[in-house]
């Protein structure tokens, strides 16, 4: 199974991921309606296979007006570090703002 298939298998029902800077990072929790409960429009911001993946992210639909606008997306950075036969996965989720609505979304 390719890396994209693994994201869909692990995280959601379907995904369109283009592993290049500017490529899609779209996951769909309802593949029949890709405009809702999805990260449609999100992009890969940085990729260094097999070490780093950075992408912007939308939150669930109930927070769409607050934080799913182009200049309000959060950013996820995932790093992979080999430790013998194992891999350490680290995740940072940045871009949160300081308000009651953002705290609820977080």
How does this structure look, described?
With 106 residues, the protein is α+β, with helices and mostly antiparallel strands. The chain has helices at residues 3-11, 64-67, 100-105, and strands spanning 14-17, 25-28, 44-48, 52-57, 74-83, 86-94. The strands form two sheets. Strands 3-4-5-6 form a four-stranded antiparallel β-sheet, with no helix packed on it. A hairpin with a 2-residue loop joins strand 5 (74-83) and strand 6 (86-94). It is globular, with a radius of gyration of 14 Å. It starts with a helix and ends with a helix.
Summarize the structure.
The protein is α+β, with helices and mostly antiparallel strands. Helices cover 18% and strands 36% of the residues.
Helix and strand pattern: HEEEEHEEH
Q: Helix/strand/pairing class, anyone?
A: alpha+beta
User: Which sheet architecture does the biggest sheet show?
Assistant: 4 strands, antiparallel
How many separate helices? Answer: 3
User: Roughly what fraction of the amino acids lie in strands?
Assistant: 35-45%
Q: What characteristic shape results from the CA principal axes?
A: globular
Strand order of the largest sheet: 3-4-5-6
Termini gap: 32 Å
Q: Helicity, in percent?
A: 10-25%
Give the number of DSSP strands: 6
Q: Kindly state the mean pLDDT as a whole number?
A: 88
Q: If you compute it from the alpha carbons, what radius of gyration comes out, rounded to the nearest whole angstrom?
A: 14 Å
Low-confidence stretches: none
């Amino acid at each position: 199974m390719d890396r994209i298939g693994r994201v869909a298998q692990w995280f959601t029902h379907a995904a369109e991921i283009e592993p290049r800077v500017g490529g899609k990072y779209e996951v769909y929790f309802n593949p029949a309606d890709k405009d809702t409960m999805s990260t449609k429009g999100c992009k890969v911001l940085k990729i260094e296979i097999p070490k780093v993946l950075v992408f912007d992210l939308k939150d669930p639909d109930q927070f769409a007006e607050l934080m799913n606008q182009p200049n309000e997306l959060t950013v996820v950075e995932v790093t992979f570090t080999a430790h013998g036969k194992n891999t350490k996965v680290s995740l940072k989720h940045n871009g949160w703002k300081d308000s009651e609505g953002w705290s609820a979304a977080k």
